[in-house]
User: Fold this.
Amino acid sequence: MMGIALSQVILESKLAQYASRFRAMSAAKDRADETFSETRLNFNRARRGLKDERLKEIINGMRKKTNAMTTGVTL
Assistant:
């Protein structure tokens, strides 16, 4: 009877340890997912900013060219 009780205590201890590890790994995965999402969002914002800046440069170049053509100035 004593051996069965001791075995049960050991199994419950191992189960508690596994449950604790599982909770810790789940929390770590959630934090990693959140960090990845934030990083992806920041990357996409930076990429969008670069595209917007390039587009502004192109538009400004076209405006200068159009203004030069209307005023007769050659570039």
